[in-house]
Write a structure and sequence with these properties.
Layout lengths: L3 H60 L9 H8 L5 E7 L5 E4 L12 H4 L9 E5 L21 E8 L2 H6 L3 H5 L8 H6 L3 E7 L2 H36 L4 H18 L3 E5 L5 E4 L1 H7 L17 H11 L4 E8 L11 E11 L5 E10 L1 H45 L7 H27 L7 E3 L1 H18 L2 E7 L6 E3 L1 H18 L4 E10 L2 E7 L28 H11 L3 E7 L3 E9 L6
Parallel strand pairs: 12-14
Antiparallel strand pairs: 1-2, 1-5, 3-4, 4-5, 6-7, 6-10, 8-9, 9-10, 11-13, 14-15, 15-17, 16-17
Helix pairs in contact: 1-2, 1-7, 1-11, 7-8, 11-12, 13-14, 14-15
Length: 598
């Protein structure tokens, strides 16, 4: 009996280890599957919200009469409804009556029944839900959402145009009315507010989720199979060796398993000293294992990571807390990293504290891809609108400008009529620039690199702005960092980006100031700084200012900085910003001087 007791204990220990592995791997797999689904639903919601914003922008433009004679909201919905994976788009009143629909046959009918409409609570932010509806219902029948069904329509909805905006817009009765109606009819009809519904086809997205789920399950089963086989081998070996030998081999196997995990893992004993750290953790945190084993985590981890360790050491469990390690941090190298951190205490069979473990997953690339998808969705919506805008506006603009120039030439040079004609020509040019900026942003940006003198590009750009800067009371200075060598860049695109940065700087200095442009080639990159003495920028909007149509100026389209970022990314570079309120702003365009191998 005494000879079998160690074997029995070893078997129970191994069975317990297998059970823990099954629980951990299963929990990880389920969490990963759920996260993928949530991410997919978020992307669908963002797609619908982006489309709604684009439609709302088009609606406002249409109500100003700039989409061409006879334009209607119905036309916008029909054009947008032709996009892939969009099942329908509808604008209704609060009772569910359809005012415009991507299928014109359903106009003036009920989108959903009254009891179904009461379950929707639209607000200024987009909401979403997965519903099952009969899209093939007769034209006169309202759709009936079945929310407890499997779901075949991903519905995104929110308020469409503010009531005050709908009542006060010039041309509102022509744009919103499905047919001819008195000018005051639209205000009475649409005053309480409008709702826009976008029905998306979720099948392609959830097919991807299902594929990821199958891959996750396969990987989990593979880990379980490998772990189970290894534990079985250890169990067989335990019967032939002494207890000390069994423990030694089990520990060697565990170390190997931890070392091969794709996620970073750091383990501490009951005293809080680090006893194990796998290769993934050392790579993620830029550490040397020899300098960490046996030491306290507070000696080499950031404060945020150590706080997670402290919670786990105190017996609390932390599940996937997101932590950002900024570039230049002691636990990062040259770039910022975003980590999902989980931690839990490890207890003995008797319930005592055996230490704690910290698991790290690098999700920086996922964050970057999510941001790229968000920008691409905006760009796709802008591109579709740009094609129609260019055709409908540019041709009549050319005719208007031609007639204005002709009329102006028939009056004395400084007469009021000649000045009015000049104003008409200037406003026509300004509107044409708006259309051009819209098309330029929507067009894919590719860098045509050639050996270029950056100083010549900067001099040329500043010459273009000299008169505008003088009119604004702004002095411009160019400060090169020594002699600038030729670099491999696209001169036209770089000039375009620099022009936008300098124009923004000049416009920011309402009462005059100083604009300084610096350029330096170092560490394989061309760095161009544009610094002004304006009012500065709130740090809370650093990321927003690069979004299309976001602007803090009373007049502007909000595309300038978005174009600058596109030019930088086309070169494989970036745009950095540093600003101090009431002390000016500095934008740095960083462009690698060698082409990326990708």
């Amino acid at each position: 009996m005494q000879n079998r007791s160690p074997r029995s204990s070893s078997s129970w220990l191994m069975a317990g280890a297998v059970a823990i592995l099954v629980v951990v791997v299963t929990a990880w797999a389920l969490r990963d599957i759920q996260r993928n689904r949530q991410t997919t639903e978020m992307l669908l919601t963002q797609q619908g919200a982006g489309l709604i914003k684009a439609l709302e922008a088009g609606a406002r433009t249409g109500m100003r009469g700039r989409l061409g004679q006879g334009a209607r909201l119905q036309g916008l919905l029909e054009e947008a409804g032709r996009q892939d994976n969009i099942l329908f788009i509808a604008v209704t009143d609060r009772n569910g009556r359809i005012l415009a629909h991507s299928d014109q046959a359903r106009t003036q009918q009920m989108l959903f029944a009254s009891d179904a409409m009461s379950r929707f609570h639209p607000g200024p932010q987009a909401a979403s839900r997965l519903v099952s509806v009969r899209l093939d219902a007769p034209a006169g029948d309202p759709l009936e959402p079945i929310e407890d069904a499997a779901g075949d329509v991903f519905l995104v909805y929110r308020n469409f145009l503010a009531p005050d905006e709908a009542r006060s817009r010039h041309g509102m009765h022509e744009f919103l009315c499905p047919g001819n109606c008195p000018p005051d009819h639209a205000a009475r009809q649409f005053g309480p507010g409008l709702i826009v519904f976008v029905g998306l086809d979720p099948e392609p997205f959830f097919d991807a989720v299902s594929s990821d789920a199958r891959a996750t399950i396969f990987f989990a089963l593979l880990i379980l199979a490998a772990g189970g086989g290894a534990f079985a081998a250890l169990s067989w070996a335990a019967r032939a060796r002494a207890s000390g030998r069994q423990l030694s081999e089990a520990r060697a196997f565990t170390d190997e398993l931890v070392a091969s995990l794709p996620a970073g893992l750091i383990a501490c004993d009951a005293s809080g000293a680090v006893v194990s750290m796998n290769d993934s953790a050392t790579r993620l945190l830029n550490l040397d294992p020899a300098d960490c084993i046996g030491r306290e985590p507070s000696e080499f981890l950031t404060a945020e990571l150590f706080d997670v360790f402290s919670l786990a050491h105190a017996g609390e469990r932390v599940v996937e807390q997101e932590i950002t390690l900024p570039a230049g941090n002691r636990n990062t190298q040259e770039k910022e990293r975003t980590l999902l951190v989980s931690a839990s205490a490890v207890t003995t069979a008797s319930g005592g504290n055996a230490g704690c473990v910290l698991i790290l997953r690098d999700v920086s690339e996922l964050k970057r891809l999510e941001e790229q998808v968000r920008r691409q969705e905006k760009l796709a919506a802008v591109g579709q609108l740009a094609a129609g805008v260019a055709h409908e506006i540019r041709n009549p603009l050319s005719s208007i400008k031609g007639f204005a120039v002709h009329l102006g030439s028939r009056f004395p040079k400084d007469s009021p009529d000649a000045l009015a004609a000049q104003t008409l020509v200037a406003e026509t040019d300004r509107l044409n620039r708006v259309v051009t900026e819209l098309i330029e942003y929507a067009r894919p940006t590719e860098a045509s690199r050639t050996p270029t003198d950056p100083g010549a590009v900067i001099d040329h750009t500043m010459r273009l702005l000299r008169q505008e800067a003088a009119d604004a009371g702004v002095t411009m200075h160019f400060e090169p960092c020594g002699e600038l060598p030729k670099v491999d860049i696209d001169p036209d695109r770089v000039s375009q980006a620099l022009l936008n940065l300098c124009l923004n700087a000049i416009q920011a200095m309402d009462e005059g100031g100083r604009l300084t442009v610096r350029a330096c080639v170092m560490d394989g990159a061309l760095e161009i700084e544009v610094e002004d003495t304006g009012p500065g920028i709130d740090p809370d909007v650093y990321e927003q200012i690069f979004d299309p149509y976001y602007t803090t100026k009373p007049r502007g389209q909000g595309l300038g900085l978005a174009v600058v970022r596109k030019v930088a990314e086309a070169h494989g570079g970036r745009v950095d910003i540093h600003s101090t309120p009431d002390a000016g702003s500095r934008f740095t365009l960083v462009l690698p001087t060698t082409r990326s191998e990708s």
